[in-house]
Design goal:
about 290 residues, 7-stranded mixed sheet, alpha/beta, 9 helices, Spore Coat Polysaccharide Biosynthesis Protein SpsA, Chain A, single chain
Length: about 290
């Protein structure tokens, strides 16, 4: 094992232990004691076995140098009831976590769509339940938002590759190096994405179309709604960054399905390509990709 891999593994193990202890002993309130109006909201969802490990990601979000005004975890009612909430999440509720139950679990898009419905005028930062976020996470993404107002901000963006006026297959896109706002910056939610108020088209709330066109590709749906709204995306830094994942959470990660190359596909197409085509054709977005 290489030295960098050993250091990476040690970092994950040490942070996991740190957040397990913090969760157990409730050291502090995890939110901004003087919340803004409208609030800065961290929004995420969880499902299945991950609900028992989601506290690690949330704990990392409560230990930020700059605190959020609200942290909301959206959970499907069929997935979990009040009687089934893990003790780790109950402890986080005592420190400010807002646990919201929804009638319809719409997959990974749950983390943004319900928050937009309930808090349409807020700045929303979407996060994943399997990531260990560094303590500068909120500080730096908000700083970038102040630098690039009205733009969506991501730590981790792919660059939409276009050749001969055609969008290349998803797996041929490269990590973006363009920090300034661009329509071709494609934010991937893993490392967190900041959405300013009104940055997405109202059509984002059309759940029927979401489930018909891109049921497992929330990043594609969100990007399409940004393009439809003429909103560009900037990056927190002038380079792509990926935060470490909580151990034992990746066996059932969506990227394994969405990025799996179809058999007998000469062009190395994957499910993301199908869902991208579905959404972009439906909303006639290809002609809007000129930067």
């Amino acid at each position: 094992m290489k030295l960098k891999d050993i250091k990476y593994k040690f970092y994950i193990e040490s942070k996991t232990l740190e957040y397990r202890l913090l969760n157990k002993f409730k050291p502090n309130y995890g939110l901004n004691p003087s919340p803004a109006t409208p609030p800065l909201i961290i929004s995420l969802t969880t499902h299945g076995k991950r609900i028992h490990q989601a506290y690690i990601a949330i704990e990392s979000l409560m230990q930020q140098q700059v605190k959020a005004d609200k942290i909301i975890l959206w959970v499907g009612k069929k997935e979990c009831s009040n009687m089934q909430i893990p003790h780790s999440l109950k402890l986080l509720q005592e420190r400010g976590l807002n646990l919201e139950f929804v009638d319809q679990d719409i997959g990974p898009a749950t983390k943004l769509i319900y928050c937009l419905q309930k808090h349409p005028d807020s700045t929303i930062i979407t996060c994943d339940d399997d990531i260990i976020y560094p303590k500068y996470f909120i500080r730096d993404i908000v700083s970038a938002a102040n630098r690039f107002p009205h733009s969506i901000i991501g730590y981790r963006c792919a660059w939409i590759e276009i050749h001969n006026q055609l969008v290349l297959p998803y797996l041929q896109w490269r990590p973006s190096k363009q920090q300034a706002p661009s329509i071709l910056n494609f934010p991937t939610g893993t490392s967190g994405v900041l959405y300013p108020p009104k940055s997405l088209h109202a059509e984002i709330l059309n759940v029927n179309n979401l489930l018909k066109l891109a049921p497992t590709a929330d990043d594609i749906w969100f990007k399409a709604m940004a393009i439809l709204n003429n909103t560009k995306t900037a990056m927190t830094y002038p380079y792509y960054i990926e935060f470490p994942t909580v151990r034992n959470t990746q066996d059932y990660a969506l990227f394994r399905t969405n990025n799996r190359i179809f058999e007998n596909s000469d062009n190395k197409l994957c499910p993301n390509d199908v869902q991208l085509k579905n959404v972009f054709n439906h909303y006639d977005l290809y002609n809007k990709l000129a930067d």
